User: Fold D-beta-hydroxybutyrate dehydrogenase from Fluoribacter dumoffii.
Amino acid sequence: MRLKNKVAIVTGAASGIGKEIALVYAKEGAKVAIADLNLDQAKEAAEEIKSKGGDAMAVAMNVTNEEEVDNGVDEVAKHFGGVDVMVSNAGIQIISPVDQLAFSDWKKLIAIQLDGAFLTTRAALKHMYASGKGGSIIYMGSVHSKEASKLKAPYVTAKHGLIGLCKVVAKEGAAHNVRANVICPGFVRTPLVDKQIPEQAKELGITEEQVIKNVMLKDTVDGEFTTTDDVAQTALFFASFESNALTGQSLIVSHGWFME
Ligand code: NAD
Assistant:
């Protein structure tokens, strides 16, 4: 087991990519906190892990709320005895051309992706520094941390921003044995993507099938979606890599959609 007795917090883990990371971490022996806006669904995910013999707890957390993040992370540290891994994964998508984008939507998305990443990082670092054991901070970026697409201005902006935060945390955290890295997935079939297929079709005046084939998967090497398990295995790799040799990096998992 690659994460035996490690404590991991995964935000946005009631659904999609975050949930799969929580399941994989638990299978590898971690005690996992499912931190999500949706407490009922977070509890279901925690129960699923427990029914498979893992250890998990659900925490109600809006990642944009300073008090909820600080209290939630402290609660997990108290319950499980520390924090070793923080996966800052919660996110949303908003589809709109820049000239029609509401300022409130811009601020909403930036807050969830960037304020959320800052607040969860700060709260986790407090415990990682104090324990003397260090830890691993993992940000859920995207191919959109490296590349732009039409209709996604706040998302592309925020995902690029995560790389900056990651590099600073990698430099500051090194003295405390804390590593920080970003995962950059291509398109993964989760509720976040299923919602935007018809929205993009409408904005671009094409069919949903054309959105999938000609927009989302057009530049992949094989026309395939990335899976939640592909991303979870990458998150496992970062969480279980225990030296500062691998820090401040961003790894693209996208069927070759974007290469660097
Ligand atoms: P999802 O919609 O399946 O899950 C997102 C989860 O985040 C939900 O459980 C939701 O309740 C939670 N959440 C939303 N706002 C929150 C908040 N303010 N506080 C706490 N929790 C909140 O989406 P997903 O596809 O699994 O996305 C997870 C992450 O992966 C996001 O950061 C997303 O940008 C990123 N990502 C997704 C894809 C993809 O194709 N699906 C690709 C690259 C990156």
Remarks:
- The domain at 7-187+227-253 is CATH 3.40.50.720 (Rossmann fold).
- The chain has a mean pLDDT of 98.
- The first strand starts at residue 7 and ends at 11.
- The pocket of nicotinamide-adenine-dinucleotide is lined by residues 11-12, 14-18, 36-38, 61-64, 89-92, 112, 140, 142, 185, 187-188, 190-193 (CB under 6 Å).
